[in-house]
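Slide 14.
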Amino acid sequence: MKLVVLGAAGRMGRTLVKVICDTEGASLHAALERDGSPALGSDAGMLAGIGELGVAVTGDIDAALDGADGVVDFTAPAVSVAIARRAAEKGLVHVIGTTGFETEADTAILAAAETGAVIVKSGNMSLGVNLLAVLVEQAARALGADAFDIEVLEMHHKHKVDAPSGTALLLGEAAARGRGVALADHSVRVRDGITGPREEGTIGFATLRGGSVVGEHSVILAGEGERIELSHAAGDRTIFARGAIKAALWAKEKPAGLYSMRDVLGLSG
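Slide 15: predicted structure.
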């Protein structure tokens, strides 16, 4: 499968290049970077530290997508939306690990999937996190909102620009789904000053940033006299890259539509 890596000079981009080269059935078709990037013209393999691959980093989107089978994208919401539209025009697989989407951008991604793109989009591409989300949903369903409060705690490196993280929101959505409610109507993102007692049924989020932490997430279900914690810690970005490439290979023969990592891993049921 001929894959294009977006943001090929970034940390995730370089990791994706490595994983593609190590994955049977996948090959690096093109490496794309923004206009003005100092990496333009460089060999993608050299940037990734795996030796020369003969694939130069380019800023030409049309040239990069020409002849490709799919795109792997850990960039920014505006970039992902623009690429999704082009992927739809060409009938490409588009794997989106980008986070920080607002409602309007999510709507645009769905529209692209409905007009020809095969999109796999997830706030986290790792097997462990997606399994964790299933467990959170089951726990929230089993434990009543009147008896257990739910808090989502996450920590990432100091360079992360969105909060809560896409993974935290994925876990919050899982908790809300387990309770049969909409997360948007029950989430609490900020607590400051005299907040009053905790409102029953809400799902709280706490965000920590610092150092080089790849990603740590915990979902706390706190009841009277007992507390359950479900956690995941990522020590290496490779887990996200492996999940993304697995998603691309899985999606290659799928019809146009919007899929999640739950679909890829057979956890949707």
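Speaker note: Residues 127-142 form the longest helix (16 residues).
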